């Protein structure tokens, strides 16, 4: 019975996605401003591709949140990693390397993400200050670094080899989509099959019990913050390989979109419960909604309003389904 | 007193949840000035009954009477207005607010324009506190009070209305013996005023000390009411569990082995000083003392959760340095903590994952955890400890207290420790499971484990221990063998009476 309910809960986000698809392809196509049907293959491929930047971050955020923490600095890390990647390719010694500069620039960018994450993790571990506060500070601080680099000016470098790679399609899917799915697979294995994943759930659910069981909570935190820093940078690498230009404001609010996707997927803010696959569902649900509302001609403001309302409605529904009849206090 | 109208009467209360008949025709009454015990194992329906009384659940059938008047309870607030108030086991106080604000929470006296009448608030509060004979005042911050005093604030809150019936749910669970005495005085004071008391507890000694009648629930059914003076523990136990329990002490029937653990002059700041003892293989060493005597802190220090400020720990004759639980586990020390829900279990995880948590590192095949190895361990200890669960996928949070405790014990036994420390092995566990856990501890000792049992319950310490260390205020007062210990000399030792005997 418990498992049946659990399955239902985990499946809910996919049911929601089907509902959206049905809505936009039946009603949406009537109102549509374009003559292409919503469910067109190309359109769906685009949904997947455009889910990738926030999706990759949201998948990492799931690990952080199951762990009982949160990371608000991912948007700033995203922008910082993008700058490192694009700018490093203009350095003289890098230019001398020709296309070999590309993997090196990627490594620089990913290292940046890992280092930023490690900073967060070490502070959370060693000071015991709540991750919310630490990463709030980091969010401001890292963003400050972004602005210090080039003022209000965008940082640009277009490398056509890179653009070709980013726009390539393999087995029909875009490069960014492969990164999204690959990240999801690796993190799913990490969270369901490995000791690290088991410990993440245990720590998020009951930190004291985890300490008593001999789990090193501090180092565990650092690994996870390094992981999400890496993923924020990976997201930047995938996205800016194609666009080639980063504004200092890029990635703002990404942390909140990532958290929205994670929460839509059913992961608990308090930690200890959640699933990578459901977050993937949450990411897709948001992107389909954006795409679908755009399909029927709604503007960005309307899209945000609708997503906000749906997020609250989903959580209210979740609470009603899960708490009814447990003799909970009325407030 | 017997022919007065009851202050509270229940008639044929039935409450069903989907698939469960949680209460099945419960009827009893509480007379004015009476202390009426309500007993039953966990899951017998006591909590549901209290929720029905407090208006949180509406009964499907039956009627509640307050005095002569039939009432339908719709909320705790309405129950309170009718004069039925609850002192819950888990205190629900706002630590940052004052005593007065807590006692009148939601009902602060007001002046014009909605301003709080602070003077009246403090005066009313102090008047109530005076009747409770406590040493704090209306303006004290609740967070600064001891648990016992916080409970007094809860009682004070009940007295802000003139209660007709007060329901105490496990009031002594976290009180020391001297604090209990104070509580019992307060209860006696309420009795004298003609208030009817329902007293819910697992503790037989208390029940027989302070109650007039005992009503027993089993599996949601009312099993009868007896006069306390006309019955005994055996009879009540039989009513509760449908069979009698062997509560006698198990004799020491095995040879003790070598010294497994020796502690010399261990100290940790102000918490405890100069603690020395030896623990043999196959022996159960009981630690008894009041709450705050330093017993749990000693265990936590040996387990590496606290850093000692002085002293040595020797395992099998070798001195060891233990800086963290990881070191402790590696040296073969395991700790079953005091609070299994907060410190022992990951309630949102299944039984198997909880049991293998400390050793999951060693159960891997390549990068992944091996399902088979985990299930093998779970099955082995489920059978060994007789853990009743539908399967390893069951969330630990859904198990009964006794089975939860067995999961924690299984978790640490599966690490094959030399020394097993069990802190409060049966806190919040019903009578039937209690004796199972006691037998289990004895059995573990017989198998050669060196076991330390820390307990606040004297019968428990007396029953399971081969030797008992009595602690007072951070110091070891005396060590007793099972032959020389009596309830009297044990109480004297833990309350600081008599000279320290090394």
From TrEMBL, chain A:
Keywords linked to the UniProt accession: Cell membrane, Membrane, Transmembrane, Transmembrane helix
Membrane-topology annotation of the record: Multi-pass membrane protein
Pfam family, one: BPD_transp_2
Keyword Methyltransferase: no
InterPro entries: ABC_transp_permease (IPR001851)
Residue stretches in coiled coil: none
Subcellular localization(s) per the UniProt record: Cell membrane
Residue ranges of the TM segments: 12-31, 51-67, 74-94, 100-124, 131-150, 170-190, 221-241, 256-289, 301-317
PANTHER family membership: ABC TRANSPORTER PERMEASE PROTEIN YPHD-RELATED-RELATED
Protein name: ABC transporter permease
Native organism: Roseinatronobacter domitianus
Taxonomic lineage from the root: Bacteria, Pseudomonadati, Pseudomonadota, Alphaproteobacteria, Rhodobacterales
TrEMBL record, chain B:
Keyword Ribosomal protein: no
Keywords assigned: ATP-binding, Cell membrane, Membrane, Nucleotide-binding, Repeat, Sugar transport, Translocase, Transport
Entry's Gene Ontology molecular function annotations: ATP binding
Domain ABC transporter: 8-244, 254-498
One Pfam family of this chain: ABC_tran
Source organism, top-level taxon: Bacteria
InterPro entries listed in its UniProt record: AAA+_ATPase (IPR003593), ABC_carbohydrate_import_ATPase (IPR050107), ABC_transporter-like_ATP-bd (IPR003439), ABC_transporter-like_CS (IPR017871), P-loop_NTPase (IPR027417)
PANTHER family referenced in this protein's UniProt entry, alphabetically: CARBOHYDRATE TRANSPORT ATP-BINDING PROTEIN MG119-RELATED, D-ALLOSE IMPORT ATP-BINDING PROTEIN ALSA-RELATED
Name this polypeptide is given: Sugar ABC transporter ATP-binding protein
Species of provenance: Roseinatronobacter domitianus
């Amino acid at each position: 019975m418990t498992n049946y309910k659990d399955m239902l809960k985990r499946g809910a986000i996919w049911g929601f996605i089907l509902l959206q698809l049905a809505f936009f392809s039946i009603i949406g196509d009537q109102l549509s401003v374009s003559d292409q049907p919503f469910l067109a293959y190309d359109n769906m491929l685009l949904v997947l591709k455009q889910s990738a930047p926030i999706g990759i971050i949201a998948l990492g955020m799931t690990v952080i949140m199951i762990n009982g923490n949160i990371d608000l600095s991912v948007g700033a890390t995203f922008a910082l990693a993008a700058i490192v990647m694009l700018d490093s390719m203009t350095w003289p010694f890098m230019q001398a390397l020709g296309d070999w500069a590309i993997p090196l620039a990627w490594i620089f960018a990913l290292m940046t993400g890992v280092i930023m994450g490690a900073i967060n993790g070490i502070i959370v571990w060693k000071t015991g200050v709540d991750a919310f506060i630490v990463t709030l500070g980091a969010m401001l601080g890292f963003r400050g670094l972004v602005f210090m680099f080039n003022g209000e000016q965008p940082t640009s470098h277009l490398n056509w080899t890179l653009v070709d790679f980013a726009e390539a399609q393999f087995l029909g899917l875009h490069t960014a989509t492969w990164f999204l799915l690959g990240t999801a697979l690796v993190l799913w294995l990490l969270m369901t099959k490995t000791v690290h994943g088991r410990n993440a759930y245990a720590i998020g659910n009951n930190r004291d019990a985890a300490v008593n069981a001999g789990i090193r909570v501090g180092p565990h935190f650092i690994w996870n913050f390094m992981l999400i820093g890496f993923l924020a940078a990976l997201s930047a690498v995938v996205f800016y390989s194609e666009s080639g230009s980063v504004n200092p404001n890029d990635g703002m609010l990404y942390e909140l979109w990532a958290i929205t996707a994670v929460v839509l997927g059913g992961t608990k803010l308090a930690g200890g419960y959640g699933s990578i696959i459901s977050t993937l569902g949450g990411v897709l649900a948001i992107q389909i909604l954006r795409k679908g509302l755009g399909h029927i001609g709604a503007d960005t403001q309307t899209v945000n309003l609708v997503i906000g309302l749906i997020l609250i409605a989903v959580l209210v529904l979740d609470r009603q389904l899960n708490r009814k009849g447990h003799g909970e206090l009325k407030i | 007193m017997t022919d007065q109208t009851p202050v509270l009467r229940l008639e044929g209360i039935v409450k069903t949840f989907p698939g469960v008949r949680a209460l099945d025709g419960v009827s009893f009454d509480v007379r004015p000035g009476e202390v009426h015990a309500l007993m039953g194992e966990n899951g017998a329906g006591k909590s549901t009954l209290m929720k029905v009384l407090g208006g949180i659940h509406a009964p499907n059938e039956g009627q509640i009477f307050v005095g002569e008047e039939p009432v339908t309870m719709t909320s705790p607030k309405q129950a309170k207005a009718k004069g039925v108030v609850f002192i819950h086991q888990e205190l629900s106080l706002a630590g940052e607010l004052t005593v007065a604000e807590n006692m009148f929470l939601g009902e602060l006296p007001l002046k014009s324009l909605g301003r709080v009448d602070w003077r009246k608030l403090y005066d009313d509060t102090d008047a109530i506190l005076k009747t409770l004979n406590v040493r704090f005042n209306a303006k004290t911050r609740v967070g600064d009070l001891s648990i016992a005093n916080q409970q007094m604030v809860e009682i004070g809150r009940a007295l802000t209305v003139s209660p007709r019936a007060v329901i105490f749910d496990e009031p002594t669970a976290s009180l020391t013996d001297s604090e209990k005495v104070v509580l019992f005085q307060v209860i006696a004071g309420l009795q004298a005023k003609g208030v009817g008391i329902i007293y819910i507890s697992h503790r037989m000694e208390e029940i027989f000390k302070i109650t007039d009648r005992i009503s027993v629930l089993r599996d949601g059914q009312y099993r009868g009411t007896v006069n306390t003076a006309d019955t005994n523990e055996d009879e009540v136990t039989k009513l509760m569990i449908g069979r009698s329990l062997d509560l006698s002490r198990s004799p020491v029937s095995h040879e003790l082995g070598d010294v497994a653990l020796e502690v010399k002059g261990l100290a940790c700041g102000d918490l405890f000083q100069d603690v020395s003892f030896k623990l043999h293989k196959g022996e159960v060493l009981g630690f008894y003392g009041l709450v705050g005597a330093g017993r749990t802190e000693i265990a936590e220090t040996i387990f590496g959760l606290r850093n000692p400020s002085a002293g040595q720990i020797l395992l099998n004759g070798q001195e060891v340095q233990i800086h963290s639980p990881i070191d402790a586990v590696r040296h073969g020390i395991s700790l079953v903590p005091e609070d299994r829900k907060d410190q022992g279990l990951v309630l949102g995880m299944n039984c198997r994952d909880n049991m293998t948590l400390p050793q999951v590192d060693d159960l891997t095949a390549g990068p992944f955890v091996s399902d088979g190895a985990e299930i093998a361990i779970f099955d082995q200890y489920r059978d060994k400890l007789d853990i009743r669960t539908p399967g390893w996928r069951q969330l630990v949070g859904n198990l009964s207290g006794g089975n939860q405790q067995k999961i924690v014990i299984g978790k640490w036994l599966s690490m094959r420790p030399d020394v097993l420390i069990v802190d409060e092995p049966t806190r919040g566990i019903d009578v039937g499971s209690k004796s199972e856990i006691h037998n289990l501890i004895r059995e573990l000792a017989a198998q050669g484990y060196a076991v330390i049992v820390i307990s606040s319950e004297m019968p428990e310490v007396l029953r399971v221990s081969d030797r008992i260390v009595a602690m007072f205020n951070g110091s070891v007062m005396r060590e007793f063998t099972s032959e020389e210990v009596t309830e009297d000399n044990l109480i004297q030792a833990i309350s600081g009476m008599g000279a320290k005997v090394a």
